Amino acid sequence: MEILYKSTRGEGTAVTASQAILKGLSEDGGLYVPENIPLLDKSLQELSEMEYKQIAYEVMKLYLTDFTEEELKNCIAKAYDEKFDTEAIAPLAEADGAYYLELFHGATIAFKDMALSILPHLMITSARKNKVTNKIVILTATSGDTGKAALAGFADVEGTGIIVFYPKDGVSPIQEKQMVTQKGANTLVVGIHGNFDDAQTGVKKLFSDKALAEEMAQKGYQFSSANSINIGRLVPQICYYVHAYATLLREEKIAAGEQINVVVPTGNFGNILAAYYAKNMGLPIGRLICASNDNKVLYDFFRTGIYDRNREFMLTSSPSMDILISSNLERMIYRIAGGDAQKNMELMTALSGEGKYEITEQMKANLEDFYGNFAAEAETAEEINRLYRTCGYVIDTHTAVASAVYRKYRKETGDDTKTVIASTASPFKFTRSVMNSIDTKYETMDDFALVDELSALAGLAVPKAIEEIRTAPVLHNRQCDVNEMKDVVKDFLKGDK
Asked: Using CB atoms within 10 A as the burial measure, which of 88, 236, 283, 453 is most buried?
């Protein structure tokens, strides 16, 4: 059955999957959503006998229905190859009664690799299918991990260019070094004077600037996105939840049909939305546990039904979650409003204007699958320390937020359902915060000395992604104010970085 995509804001006709991937964002500012969520057409038992690539095909074929089997399998084969340091692609580690889904075994040691390894191939295939001759320019805002993963995916890919904007003082030293040392003649990395929400809002404005789009088209360019606002980012994320369930079933940790809970450290809402889509496809997921850090806008939303970004923006040790405008929540709002694009538009207009909105009682009732809570900075550090002391398992700060929230959930509900926790980044990406949580004696060591100390402590090899940047030269040092982002894009397209 063909699946078409429509905007959450209702304007325009439905488009194919490849067209939605190419556009990234709808012209009316809305996000593309499938007209319906397809059901899995393989049994859980059949899925349990498959490797990651096979599961990825079985999930993605249901959404990307205008791709041929050959095209889709080719994209999957190119994405999930030796770039990952384990054949399992996304292994499960059991620790302290939960299953940590390790999504950080790709080239940039963060979960964004799971989708951004395949997005360039989906994008190029989509361009070919739609006879696009323009050069595709990827515009992306990052809170730390998307940027590097997108850069690694699109670097020197023919027919593309990529510009990444990140908050200059809002990412970890390792995250920044990963981005500013990125090679590739078609890449540009820019630090903005502001936070992630400023960068994300700036990118959205560029997408909705029709005069700029026309000017770029005349010069042979068109914009697309590598953020999770792109449906080509969201669909591949569904796969690893199906894979996690299949792995537990294959290893006889659960019975076929047995429910599991899923905990996701959440900022932009894409990763947990993918789990929600997996549940709606028929995967036996019970509760979706949304874990926030001190920027607890989503926690407050789930408790009150009011989304309010009018609050202090907190810089935390889990910077990829330092977000007050969770873009992908719009897809959820549209769904719990019964696909009412007008209602969704009304709420999104209120968010951009007054900075807040309140959902109806009926919409609140449609969120019963979700549980929200948060972990403050001290709780995050304590969870890293506790898990290392009790199990010898070392987790990063984002995973620690999820793990701490899971403990709160169990204490509050008494629910002992088997649970998968999305482990979204390697501890090597946030060495200072991780090591200081384990012992304050590490405070005076430099970042790369801490890398070696962590390797010895955890008995883990230093990831290739870290070794590569130890002595790599800085290739990108441009900075700008938010109101200068358009000029930066124009300069890049003129060939003046």
From this structure: 236
